[in-house]
Amino acid sequence: MATIKHGANGGFKGKAGSVIGSSWKGIDYIKGLSKKRTKPFSEEQKIQQERFATITKFLMPIAPILKLGFGQKNADAMTPANVALQANMDTAVTGVYPLFELDYSKILISSGSFVGGGAMTASVAAGTLSIDWDTALNSLYGSKADDQVVILLHQPTINEFMTVPTPPTRADGTVDIVIPTHFLGGKGHVWIFFADRKGKKVSRSSYLGELDLV
């Protein structure tokens, strides 16, 4: 049963006959009930579904990071996860159906015009990931010493991610992160981006490369 909250001319929530009413971010929606599909998917549809599944598998576990990294993009119409999916599906998925793979160097975990960290480096030694960045401030872009630095490490063999619970600041210029023991022995991919303390200004993420986790 549907519930009408704002009179006969308002939106409604719930099922009413063959339609379902709902709302998101103050926008009312009405959609028809889904019907059982009888027509087989075309080859093109199967390819698109597999591309979608490939990038979604990577993005879903890092939803909290995407909320910050893409939270200012099309915020009134799309969720950050959907914006990230749209930004990555056509560029980061490579290979030939059905054997799609990810080009990690092209994956974006944030998108924006905020100033980044200049010349940045990442290295691993004795089970520690070390990352350095430029601490110089840019008055034109309004960067601050207390801007947060978000770092993501992905170990694809075990399909796990690691980040710093409390992000370092732009002024720190460097951070050492102890890598969990079960990450070691494989390869790791590293990304970094910068955001102001309110999360309103975000830089485009930078891929810092594939590293031997030793």
Model description:
This protein is α+β, with helices and mostly antiparallel strands and about 210 residues long. Helices cover about 15% and strands about 35% of the residues. The strands form 4 sheets. Strands 1-2-3-4 form a 4-stranded antiparallel beta sheet, with no helix packed on it. A 4-stranded antiparallel beta sheet has the order 10-9-12-13, covered by helices on one side. It has a 3-stranded antiparallel beta sheet with strand order 7-8-11, with no helix packed on it. Strand 7 (about 120-125) and strand 8 (about 130) form a beta hairpin. The radius of gyration is 21 Å and the shape is globular. Pfam families: DUF6266 (PF19781). InterPro entries: DUF6266.
Key words describing this protein structure:
alpha+beta; Immunoglobulin-like; 4-stranded antiparallel β-sheet; 3 helices
Q: In DSSP terms, counting alpha (H) and pi (I) runs of 4 or more, how many helices?
A: 3
- Average pLDDT rating: 89
SSE series: EEEEHHHEEEEEEEEE
Helix- and strand-based class? Answer: alpha+beta
Tell me the strand percentage band. Answer: 25-35%
- In percent, how helical is the residue content? 10-25%
Straight-line distance between termini: 58 Å
Shape: globular
CATH architecture identity of the largest domain: Sandwich
Radius of gyration, in angstroms, nearest whole number: 21 Å
Number of domains: 3
Strand order of the biggest β-sheet: 1-2-3-4
Kindly report the name of the CATH homologous superfamily of the largest domain: Immunoglobulins
CATH topology of the largest domain: Immunoglobulin-like
- Main sheet? 4 strands, antiparallel
Total beta strand runs? 13
Which CATH class of the largest domain is shown?
Mainly Beta
- Weakly predicted, low-confidence segments: none
InterPro entries: DUF6266 (IPR046233)
Pfam families: DUF6266
Protein name: DUF6266 family protein
